[in-house]
C-alpha cells in the first residue's frame, strides 16, 4: 500500500471523513490546520479557534495532540496484562493498546514504512517489525478503503489473481493500493469465488464469455465437428 506523507493528518481525520455528510472543502481546511500545528506554525489555541470557526469537532485536533505527545515519552518496556493476552497454537499474542497504536502512528509519521525494524524499536513493548507492519497495513492505515467494492476494483482483483495466483496476496493488494491483503483474500475467496449469488453470476458470465470466444473461432469449430462426426453420430452444439 502506498505511503502518504500526510499520514498523521489523514489518520486523525479518518473518523470525520467517514461522515459523508461533511463537505470535502471543510475536510481539506481542517487538514491544512492540522498540518500547520504538526509543523509548529500554529499554536494549539490558534488551531482550536480555527476549527471552531469551521464548526467541526475538536476531536481530530486533540487526537493529533495525543499522538505527538507520545514522541516525548521514553520507549515503553514490555507489559502485557493477563486480560490482554490472546492465545494461538504456538504462543500468546498481546493485544494492541490504544497507546501502542498512537506510538505506531507516530513512528510511521516519523520514519515512513520502509524500515519497520526502526518503527518497531520506536513503538517498544517488544513489538516486532512483523507485528508493526501487519497492525499498520491491515488496521490503522487511514488509506485503507473499507467501503463496498466497486466493479472496477473487482476487475483489477480478478486480473491480479490470474497474474499472481492465490498465494501472493500482498502483491495482489499492491495492485489495488487502497485494499489490504486480507481484504483481497476474503473478497476473492468468499464473495467472488464462493457460493454467493454474486459469485455464481460472475462464474456464469465467465463461462459464457469463454464459450463465446471459443465458438467464434471458425477453424476450431469445424475441426471439432469433423472430429466428433468421425467418432460418433451424436453431436449437440453447446447452448
Give the name of the CATH architecture of the largest domain.
Orthogonal Bundle
Biggest beta-sheet profile = 2 strands, antiparallel
- What percentage of amino acids are in beta strands? under 5%
Distance between the termini: 44 Å
Number of domains: 3
For the secondary structure, the number of strands is 2
The total count of helices amounts to 12
- Report the helical percentage: 55-70%
User: What's the Cα radius of gyration?
Assistant: 26 Å
- CATH top level class name of the largest domain: Mainly Alpha
- Biggest sheet: strands side by side, in what order? 1-2
Mean pLDDT: 83
Low-confidence parts: 232-239
Order of helices and strands: HHHHEEHHHHHHHH
Oligomer: single chain
Structural class: mainly alpha
Keywords: DNA-binding, Nucleus, Transcription, Transcription regulation
Domain Myb-like: 96-140, 141-192
GO molecular function: DNA-binding transcription factor activity, RNA polymerase II-specific; RNA polymerase II cis-regulatory region sequence-specific DNA binding
Domain SANT: 144-189
Please, could you describe this protein's structure?
Helix content is 62%, strand content 3%. It has 239 residues and is an all-alpha fold. The chain has three domains: 5-70; 98-140, Arc Repressor Mutant, subunit A (Orthogonal Bundle), CATH 1.10.10; 151-232, Arc Repressor Mutant, subunit A. Helix 9 (169-176) packs across helix 10 (181-192). It is globular, with a radius of gyration of 26 Å. Mean pLDDT is 83; it is low at 232-239. Residues 144-189 form the SANT domain. Residues 96-140, 141-192 form the Myb-like domain. InterPro entries: Homeodomain-like_sf (IPR009057), Myb-like_DNA-bd (IPR051575), Myb_dom (IPR017930), SANT/Myb (IPR001005), SANT_dom (IPR017884). Keywords: DNA-binding, Nucleus, Transcription, Transcription regulation.
Amino acid at each position: 500500500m502506498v505511503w502518504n506523507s500526510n499520514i498523521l493528518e489523514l489518520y486523525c481525520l479518518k473518523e470525520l471523513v467517514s461522515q459523508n455528510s461533511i463537505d470535502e472543502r471543510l475536510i481539506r481546511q481542517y487538514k491544512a490546520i492540522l498540518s500547520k500545528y504538526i509543523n509548529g506554525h500554529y499554536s494549539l489555541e490558534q488551531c482550536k479557534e480555527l476549527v471552531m470557526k469551521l464548526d467541526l469537532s475538536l476531536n481530530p485536533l486533540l487526537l493529533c495532540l495525543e499522538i505527538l505527545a507520545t514522541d516525548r515519552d521514553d520507549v515503553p518496556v514490555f507489559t502485557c496484562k493477563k486480560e490482554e493476552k490472546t492465545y494461538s497454537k504456538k504462543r500468546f499474542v498481546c493485544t494492541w493498546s490504544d497507546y501502542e497504536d498512537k506510538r505506531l502512528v507516530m513512528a510511521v509519521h516519523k520514519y515512513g514504512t520502509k524500515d519497520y525494524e526502526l518503527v518497531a524499536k520506536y513503538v517498544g513493548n517488544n513489538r516486532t517489525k512483523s507485528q508493526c507492519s501487519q497492525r499498520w497495513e491491515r488496521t490503522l492505515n487511514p488509506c485503507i478503503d473499507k467501503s463496498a467494492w466497486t466493479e472496477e476494483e473487482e476487475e483489477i482483483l480478478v486480473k491480479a489473481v490470474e497474474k499472481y495466483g492465490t498465494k501472493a496476496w500482498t502483491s495482489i493488494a499492491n495492485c489495488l493500493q487502497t485494499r489490504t491483503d486480507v481484504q483481497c483474500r476474503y473478497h476473492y475467496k468468499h464473495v467472488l469465488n464462493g457460493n454467493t449469488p454474486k459469485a455464481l453470476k460472475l462464474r456464469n458470465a465467465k463461462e459464457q464469455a469463454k464459450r463465446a470466444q471459443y465458438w467464434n473461432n471458425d477453424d476450431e469449430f469445424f475441426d471439432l465437428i469433423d472430429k466428433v462426426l468421425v467418432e460418433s453420430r451424436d453431436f449437440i452444439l453447446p447452448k
